[in-house]
Design brief:
19 strands; alpha/beta; inorganic pyrophosphatase (n-terminal core); globular; 5-stranded mixed sheet; 5-stranded parallel sheet; Diaminopimelate Epimerase, Chain A, domain 1; 21 helices; disordered C terminus
């Protein structure tokens, strides 16, 4: 792993500190995140509802809202067509509640991941038309649903597509309105909204135009969960959603939200972080669509009875446990395949397939494979001659463009630069593997496979105090676009033998070594936790007194007896070797 300091011009940092009155350390953290002025800093540190953009700036939204208002006035039922992940299900909830608060009637359809797969299907639209539905609005899906658009038009249905995925080069489907900030010609300022974020803009316009704007804050809790779970950049409007939504989640009113947070042991005694959502809340919601039916999520958030809501939340927790077991089983098989195949170990793009691999879990498995092997990865679950795939990529490789280089192989595909979904006949997998590897070899070099750890600043270990941790909390929520600040401390000395926790985690006890101390007679010791780093304790012969350079984030252990500021290790290296390597690179 290479360590690289994030760039920030010294004069820019000094100016920002002077204009804002913030400490230099905070000003630098803001500067490396692209913040240049006091106004930008204020909006970043203290976002408000006034920072939301006008919904009417989004192409197609005005037409969509007018049609929904007409449906409400005429008593027409609006069918909301969603997706089965956190983003899609919460988007349904947002739009459903908004329309019904305005006096409308709704139905919704959540595809079953296994039986229907991703995207809008003709038979659902046909069946809706048979029941007299005259308006359908999609959320988090539909931007490539050309056949569905044709079917809706033929059956006399007004289709409104709201989505955030990238459109095809040949345009968008036929629809009454297409609402997607990423479509050609749309000048909406925030291009990185998730699907629920786009649905929120529809809801925002509806509530504002019907005199219910005061209800907007209650929707931010749901859109915050989706925004964080979908890993879109937490900057601009997304930061407003996340920051204000997390604040609202400390005192949830919705019975389902209360039950879910209680199940996650997030009782509101402390501010919620983006990590709480990403690693505790979102996996439980995603488990519904992965392992069973995503309808559970809509039921959870629309259930008013606390006891019933608690039962649904418990079911989601059980499904998440099932998901974890299935994920590990598949990963064990994948690792065995890769280790047994020299060709796979040398591939520039990994394509793996297996019978009996749960289709709801392969996306997570693809993420884990990318983390371990640093290669773009597609994983396919094969069943009855059809292969259903999910892919993830590294920063340097646009995976959707790779799929677009061989579209004739697929029955369907779509997604983003670094996350895709697709299906194709099993017999075409060898050709796909060959063509994607060739595509990757033309665009990647071995250097692209070496992970880079970007850090924000070097810091003396003795300066990592409680006040410093509190200062960092002002930059929350962290996520894509606003990463958790990473620091490097030189010459940290082990004062206890390394410990292995649960057979896979590493715990070090360190202090600033004499050559890097600030002169204090009393040196505070720090716990440094390295998740999944146990094997490195023996690989690198860590002994009492070893001096290391540490790369870490700062965390806080809330245990009443031995809590306090602690370090989350991202990497470490022998101090002399790390310094020499850095000098060589310079």
């Amino acid at each position: 792993m290479r360590w690289a300091l994030r760039n920030a011009e010294s004069q820019d940092v000094q100016r920002l500190a002077l204009e804002t009155g913030l400490p230099i350390s905070t000003a630098r953290l803001l500067a490396v995140r692209g913040i240049q002025t006091a106004e930008q800093a204020h909006k970043f540190l203290a976002p408000s509802l006034q920072d939301l953009h006008s919904p009417n700036l989004m192409t197609g939204l005005r037409v969509a809202v007018e049609r929904l208002r007409a449906a409400i006035e005429r008593g027409e039922t609006v069918l909301i067509y969603g997706d089965y992940d956190v983003d899609g299900t919460t988007a349904i909830v947002i739009l459903k509640i908004a329309i019904e608060l305005c006096g409308g009637q709704t139905e919704h359809h959540v595809p079953h991941r296994i039986r229907e797969g991703y995207g809008m299907r003709d038979e659902v639209i046909e069946e809706a038309a048979d029941r007299g539905i005259r308006v359908i609005i999609s959320v988090d899906t539909g931007i490539r649903a050309f056949a569905a658009g044709e079917t809706a038009q033929r059956r006399g249905i007004d289709l409104i597509v709201t989505d955030h995925h990238l459109p095809q080069a040949n345009g968008v489907p036929k629809a009454l309105a297409v609402v997607n900030p990423n479509q050609e010609g749309c000048d909406y300022p925030c291009k990185s909204l998730c699907g629920a974020g786009v649905a929120f803009k529809i809801a925002q316009a509806l509530l504002q135009e019907t005199g219910r704007e005061r209800l907007l804050p209650s929707f931010l809790k749901m859109v915050a969960i989706a925004t964080i779970a979908d890993a879109v950049p937490l900057i601009g409007e997304n930061r407003v959603f996340a920051k204000l939504g997390l604040e609202g989640l400390r005192k949830p009113v919705n019975a389902g939200l209360r039950a879910l947070l209680a199940n996650c042991q997030l009782d509101g005694s402390r501010p919620l972080s983006a990590g709480d959502i990403a690693f505790r809340v979102a996996p439980r919601l995603n488990a519904a669509g992965r392992m069973d039916v995503a309808e559970h999520v809509i039921q959870l958030f629309t259930e008013k009875d606390a006891t019933k809501a608690a039962d649904i939340a418990l079911r989601l927790n059980q499904l998440n446990g099932d998901r974890q077991l299935e994920e590990q089983r598949i990963l064990d098989e994948i690792q065995a395949k890769i280790e047994a195949s020299p060709e796979m170990r040398e591939a520039y793009c990994l394509v793996l397939e297996g019978e009996g691999w749960h289709r709801g879990v392969i996306g997570i498995c693809a993420t884990r494979v990318v983390e371990r092997y640093r290669r773009p990865t597609l994983i396919f679950s094969c069943e009855d001659g059809e292969a259903y795939g999910s892919g993830r990529s590294i920063e340097a490789f646009h995976l959707l463009q790779a799929l677009e280089s061989c579209p004739e192989l697929f029955a369907r595909f779509g997604g983003h630069a670094h996350a895709v979904g697709c299906s194709l006949p099993v017999e075409k997998i060898p050709e796909l593997r060959s063509r994607l590897d060739a595509f990757a070899r033309e665009r990647l070099t071995p250097q692209d496979f070496i992970p880079i750890l970007h850090y924000d600043a070097e810091i003396a270990l003795d300066d990592v105090k409680h006040d410093f941790w509190l200062l960092l909390q002002k930059l929350e929520p962290f996520g894509s676009g606003n990463p958790v600040p990473v620091f490097v401390a030189r010459n940290a000395k082990l004062v206890q033998p390394p410990r292995v926790l649960k057979e896979k985690h590493l715990k070090l006890r360190v202090v600033a070594s004499d050559r890097n101390s600030n002169g204090s007679k009393f040196q505070r010791g720090f716990d440094a936790l390295g998740w999944r780093m146990a094997e490195r304790a023996t690989q690198e012969s860590l002994l009492l007194g070893t001096v290391l350079d540490l790369a870490f984030t700062v965390d806080y252990n809330e245990h009443p007896e031995f809590g306090g500021v602690q370090l989350n290790l991202l990497d470490f290296a022998p101090a002399a070797a790390a310094s020499a390597a850095q000098a060589a690179e310079g």
